[in-house]
Amino acid sequence: MPLKNLKTENENLLLIERILYAKRYSLALDKTRCVGCDICKTVCPREAIEIKKIPKKDPQKTQRPILNINEQKCSYCGMCEPICPFNAIEVRVNQKHVVPVLEKESFPQFIREIEIDSAKCDVGCMDCEEACPLSLITVAVLTPDGRKISPKEAKSVPNKESFKVQVDIKRELCPCCKICEVKCPKDAIHVNKLMHGILRINLEKCPTGCQDCLDVCPIPDALYLGGNDRKVHPKDAFCVFCGVCKVVCPVGDALILERKMINHTPVKSGAWNKALEKLASTKDYSKEAKIKGLTKVKKMVEKRIMLKEVS
């Protein structure tokens, strides 16, 4: 039995804690990173996460939903941390960053495949930094004497041939929207999306002039307001399939969001199977389960062949 359950909250942080005799569990939600999507709520096995929509006051823009975590229900399993595309949640045990489901290898992690070839970049170019909707990219220029200057400074310096461009991305926070890749004029960045899927809008049900989903979308280029019909249209290429658009949509079935594939580390787990079944459509969950089954059979056959060769 817990000795004490604690909950503290301010404008930027929600912190819940469970204090036992020998252990102290904590879960912190960084509100500055959280976009109010429903992914963590969807996978939570204890239904400890709630999403609160903020009532809209005209003519204000729609605000992102706020997450609330029930400190009585939370088991501190950590499923919510690795599945958050924005890395807004952190679980600790005795003040150390520990994710129990990852330690037990019962839950996967996202694979963030981001490749940068800075040698292709032009000195002075800041297109990727300026394009990043979450300000996760920093471009700097290294001079021959080891100084680091800004691209703007480098533009005014003659004889830039010996300068080197350095592009840094906060990978652990990146939802892999691919905007930097598309905006790069030199094909220096390649990004594989964390989640692939389909985002469709039923224009017959979408209210004319409504842009609630557009207001809350963390990736502005993923949605746009049509000039003629005054309705929101999607761009699947940039969507990260977080689902916050669907959370705030005033007409529930006007938005159709399907997650087809999640780029994650290999795992054999009933807990992940249940989570995946909730996150993806039944058809796509079945596909992954089938692939896992075939992979397992392949490994068994390979093992038998190796044993025969040894004997």
Structure description:
With 311 residues, this protein is an alpha+beta fold. It folds into 3 domains: 4-103, Alpha-Beta Plaits; 113-192, Alpha-Beta Plaits (2-Layer Sandwich); 194-263, Alpha-Beta Plaits. The protein has helices spanning 39-43, 80-83, 100-103, 127-131, 151-155, 179-183, 212-216, 244-248, 270-279, 282-310; strands at residues 4-9, 13-19, 24-30, 49-52, 66-69, 89-93, 96-97, 113-116, 137-142, 148-149, 164-169, 189-192, 195-201, 223-225, 232-234, 255-262. Helix 9 packs antiparallel against helix 10 (282-310). The longest helix has 29 residues, at 282-310. The radius of gyration is 23 Å and the shape is globular.
Task: Please render the helix and strand layout as text.
Layout: E1 4-9, E2 13-19, E3 24-30, H1 39-43, E4 49-52, E5 66-69, H2 80-83, E6 89-93, E7 96-97, H3 100-103, E8 113-116, H4 127-131, E9 137-142, E10 148-149, H5 151-155, E11 164-169, H6 179-183, E12 189-192, E13 195-201, H7 212-216, E14 223-225, E15 232-234, H8 244-248, E16 255-262, H9 270-279, H10 282-310
Antiparallel strand pairs: 1-2, 2-3, 3-6, 4-5, 6-7, 8-12, 9-10, 9-11, 13-16, 14-15
